[in-house]
Amino acid sequence: MASHGIKDRVAIVGMGCTRFGERWETGADELLVEATNEALESAGIRKGDVDAYWVGTGQSGMSGLLLSKPLELVGKPVVRVENMCATGSEALRQASYAVASGAYDVAVAVGVEKVKDSGYQGLNAFPVPNDGTPRTLTAAAMFSMIVPAYSRKYGVPEDEVKEVLARIASKNHANGALNPRAQFRKPMSVESLLAMPPVAGRLSVFDCAGVADGAAAAVVVRSPDAPRFNDKPVFVKALSVVAGDGKGLLDPEYDYTTFPEVVMCAKDAYAQAGITDPRRQLAMAEVHDCFTPTELVLMEDLGFADRGVAWKEVLAGAFDLHGDLPINPDGGLKSFGHPVGASGLRMMFECWLQLRGEAGERQVDVSRRLALTHNLGGYPGEMVSFVSVLGTDHD
Q1: Is residue 123 domain-resident?
Q2: pLDDT band at 130 (very low <50, low <70, confident <90, very high)
Q3: Per-residue pLDDT reduced to its tens digit, 161-204
Q4: Which residues are known to be catalytic?
Q5: Is the N or C terminus of the chain more exposed, i.e. has fewer CB atoms within 10 Å?
């Protein structure tokens, strides 16, 4: 990979996040203002102290006006970005690199999505002209193909894989039940999840992330300046993004048990951060569990488990809230919800709380002092992937 990274050159000094869910009472404007104001307040600054803003959204706005109007910003550069479900992460990446370059002293990244008022289907892709070959299956159907593929490759009966997926969902619902900002706050037993009827392949509705409204925001500055804003900053160790070439759609050897984009992205992020053993060096991780089999595959792609072994680790509780490596302690997309433009920043918000010891009932052991977020957009064989590593120590 060509990235040299910006390890320890940028610090997050403030963050905010709204409650995710069916926010019928609020619009995108209110969500943006709420998240941004919380981030600014935690950094001890006002909106006029910010030099530049980045706002990420899938379809809730078309320009920087999405943020500048409700915040009543005057004379400020505001850029709207989009990178499928990795949109919020991309907003943070661009703000961080702008600060690291010296172009700006203080930048804010915000992500938002307001979709519930348009129905229950989530986001619809814009009608971009194509050659007629793209897949027409639902996202749930495409990710459901992981189940038989994983079963065949590693000799695990599909019924047992299904139990593993129910265990993942149950874990994330248990974590979300402890989170006052989560969309779903009801614990779900493995037995009740296994009893759900299938809607796509072997997946039930409760194998799928919730469709939600919400927003999240972060304030970033150069690391030497961080003590002026916050006495417990979180430092950026790595930011990596990889866009696939879509060849998984055409490759007869692609078997749905790995996401090559994630593997490459993680390798780059670990190189930037100086991580050689993520399972032992990370205190926690927030990963893109858009569907339960996604989380299963990610455990192996991110190096948290050996190939063909993650299912055993899930059943053994290795990734539980107080397991060896807690995964999605805030409930993940599965329980916290998934407003596309906000999810990447929501993951960083949980790392911010956990690394600072402010996560309350769901606080994990952060003595390892490093946390990871993983965000993806697209489908198996055709996706973008983002990985960040954040930490409390500064080299």
Answers
A1: no
A2: confident
A3: 999 999 999 999 999 999 999 999 999 999 999 999 999 999 99
A4: 85, 338
A5: C
